[in-house]
Design a protein that fits this description.
66 residues, mainly alpha, 434 Repressor (Amino-terminal Domain), 55% helix, globular, Helix-turn-helix transcriptional regulator, Lambda_DNA-bd_dom_sf, Cro/C1-type_HTH
């Protein structure tokens, strides 16, 4: 599963969070979060953890597959 970069960046901006702050909230390194934001596949549990920290549904963050 991939996170849509624009969607996560918008969600982070609405909560005034940068990648370092979000990574701390979800107990992940900033580097790992950055690779996920930039298109690396991740587990559904990770997407749910990120979505929960941002106060959105996980479906709001995932990249729609063509």
């Amino acid at each position: 599963m991939r996170i849509d970069k624009i969607k996560i960046m918008v969600a982070m901006a609405k909560r005034d969070l940068n990648q370092t702050q979000l990574a701390e909230k979800i107990e992940m390194s900033r580097g790992n979060l950055s690779t996920i934001v930039n298109g690396k596949r991740c587990k559904a549990e990770t997407v749910i953890k990120i979505a929960t920290a941002l106060g959105v549904e996980y479906t709001d963050l995932i990249e729609k597959e063509a």
